[in-house]
Amino acid sequence: MIRNTLAAVLLALLPTSSGHAPPPRITPAAVDAFVERYREATGLPGAAVAVTLGTRVIHAAGYGRTASGHPLTADTPMAVASVSKSFTSLAVMQLVEKGAVDLDRPVRDYLREFAMADPRAAKITVRQLLHQTSGMADSAFREKSLPQPDTLEGAVARLRSARLAAEPGTTFNYHNTNYQVAARLVEVVSGEPFAAYLDAHVFEPLGMRHSTTIDTDRDLPGSARGHLYVLGRAVALPEPAGFGNGSGGVLSTANDMARWLIAQHRGVLPPRGVKELRTPSEQNDSYALGWSLGRTARGTPVIEHGGDLFTSTAHQSLLPDSGYGVAVMANTGMAFSDAGALMDGLVAMIEGAEPQIPSASPTLVVDVVFALLTAATVGLAARGVARSRRWAARRTGWRRWGLLPYLAPLALCVMIAPVFRVLARGRDIMGIQVAYLYPTFMIWLVAAAAAGVAVVVARLAGAARLRRR
Q1: SS3 string of the chain?
Q2: CATH class of the domain at 2-350
Q3: What does pTM read for this prediction?
Q4: Which of 148, 172, 424, 448 is disulfide-compatible with 409, CB 3.0–4.6 A?
Q5: pLDDT for res 23
């Protein structure tokens, strides 16, 4: 293992050019032109892109500005969100290579503090955590809407009252807590805090000088904060409260992600370990240990992983047939998928196709519709309040039950998170997070709720005045 680590360090210091490598299919100028055209069409505030070929960096650059207004460069730290799972799985696999961890032994063998209210949890293996087949799921443990922990130890401790959604090893459920438990396992087995472990065993050996991992939204630096689109314009907003270390806490840069992609090409582990990283489970043949397996739109095999925060997105892709690697970070949220769209365009260029540029912000039409609905709702509410006395004079007794529909928007506001969970097949969310996903819809819904309450109160007050007379 020591020899492998030293070899990785020496390789990282070698020049990245090779006279025998094929010429790149895309150039830095072409990447710059595509990203700038995309930003101009959509209003994307800022992005970072890394493109590699084999052991060469084709291009690494930052575009636009951060949420705090500073120029975004190739060395600006940005959130990579769930791309972090690839780093966590590598950390676990390094311990496997050292013989300190066995993927097929129960997590409890290494992490005695890992306990759940469901006795079946004692059977969960380390591999099942990384394959997301542990049986943990949002439907049984609402990891987003519960009080958020501050540390990995706290993330594991709050599982003591949780139950499983399925028997371990039987079903796939994408659930961030799996990787938080895995990161805590790394801490306990290695004897190092997870951030220190990644620094010493992943970031420093690969030359990723500006990368780190954080615990919560409060730890996000200004450069890693993001935006929502409202009426086609990017609005900088803080990330909603959440815990992400191990599952989504890594911050990195375009230059650092280029080094990460090159390391994947060289082999971050001995061949057997790399094969484990990229072997899916029987329950889901498209998800391996922190990586997804699939094909591009043109049928090329791809090894990838996306990442979504509510105010930023990221994506990484490896194209093993050609040796290309691509990483993208964008400072707009998951509702807009800018990192994924940029990735699709860059992969299309690699495959010799023309990248697609949106004609405008994809949410602009929807935003305009809800803006008009909000204005109309406020106007109708003002009219209803103004005519409340006339309404009260015409209606008495049971007919006033007709006011109940006016309270429907208020009821939906209160129940928006449970309704979303049903529509999203059990995925957990908080009410404020729904607002980040659908900002103009929620503005209209809150306006409609306030308008409905105002009309009901005004009409009931008018009826009360009439009774007193």
Answers
A1: CHHHHHHHHHHHHCCCCCCCCCCCCCCHHHHHHHHHHHHHHHCCCEEEEEEEECCEEEEEEEEEECCCCCECCCCCCEECHHHHHHHHHHHHHHHHHCCCCCCCCEHHHCCCCCCCCCHHHHHCEHHHHHHCCCCCCCCCCCCCCCCCCCCHHHHHHHHHHCCCCCCCCCCCCCCHHHHHHHHHHHHHHHCCCHHHHHHHHHHHHHCCCCCEECCEHHHCCHHHCEEEEECCEEEEECCCCCECCCCCCEEECHHHHHHHHHHHHHCCCCHHHHHHHCCCCCCCCCECCCCEEEECCCCCEEEEEEEECCCCEEEEEEECCCCEEEEEEECECCCCCHHHHHHHHHHHHHCCCCCCCCCCCCCHHHHHHHHHHHHHHHHHHHHHHHCHHHHHHHCCHHHHHHHHHHHHHHHHHHCHHHHHHHHCCCCCCCHHHHHHHCHHHHHHHHHHHHHHHHHHHHHHHHHHHHHHC
A2: alpha beta
A3: 0.90
A4: 448
A5: 65
